[in-house]
Amino acid sequence: MPLKYQPFYLGIGRALAKQLSKHGATVFALSKSKQNLESLKEEIEGIQILTVDLCDWEATRKAVESVGHIDLLVNNAGVAVLQSFMTITPDSFDRLFSVNVKAIINVSQVVAEKMIANKTGGSIVNLSSQASMAALKDHTVYCGTKAALDMVSKVMALELGPHKIRVNCVNPTVVMTEMGKLGWSDPLKADPMLARIPAGKFAEVEDVVNAVMFLLSDKAAMINGTTLPVDGGYLGCH
In terms of C-beta density within 10 A (0-12 exposed, 13-18 middle, 19 or more buried), how is residue 54 classed? Predict the structure, then answer.
């Protein structure tokens, strides 16, 4: 089975950057794609961009350290490689865990270290997926990375909580980004999934952005170590 390699939730990261900037935040966007970052810079006045491959541990640490103190962190980067269980390859396994889990630990360590040193506290939100709690065909490794991310986030919340750093996950269903529309435009694929969502629709980008913004804010001051489904009831009703 051919590999289907794709950046995940690309539209969510762009929308989040816009919303945070709109609310007065100084936004630092980090990505492997210089082209995507340059286009983002054209859309958002004052945004700071850093080009780095998250799979490169040391280069990523240097890039994040160069930013200085960060109050709010959203770990949005993710990749999906779709393979049936019997065709999983070592390369795809390593790639997914490197981006979807290892890179998040790396970036969060650097950010949390400064939060602790400066005694400011803060909030970290990790973009997970309903796939962390529901099996999806051809998603063995992807589901595994998101389940791992949920538990990593809970332990982060446990250990960082005493430093007034909250850590939570947002777990969307299929999201109607441009990529999502392409990937789920076929009714043969989309209809069985939609049939299991009581709300009868997939998530829009703003649904996910609103959940992330809430968890970043002081209105969520007592929410820590949670996984927040944005799935129209998919997980809660099955």
Answer: buried
Token digits of residue 80: 């999906």
Residue 42 has pLDDT above 90, yes or no: yes
pLDDT tens readout for residues 50-103: 999 999 999 999 999 999 999 999 999 999 999 999 999 999 999 999 999 999
The type of residue at 193 is: M
- Contact (CB, 8 A) for 198 and 233: yes
Q: Is 142 a catalytic residue?
A: yes
- Cβ-based neighbour number of residue 94 at 10 Å: 13
Element of type H or E holding 91: helix 90-97
208 CB burial (10 A radius; 0-12, 13-18, 19+): buried
CA distance 58 to 45: 29
Q: Which of 5, 9, 142, 234 is catalytic?
A: 142
The residues that bridge with 28 in the sheet, in sequence order, are 48
Radius of gyration, alpha carbons of the chain: 17
Q: In this predicted model, what pLDDT tens digit does every residue of 126-156 receive, in sequence order?
A: 999 999 999 999 999 999 999 999 999 999 9
Distance CA 109, CA 83 (A): 31
pLDDT of 6 above 50: no
Domains along the chain?
5-174+205-230 (3.40.50.720)
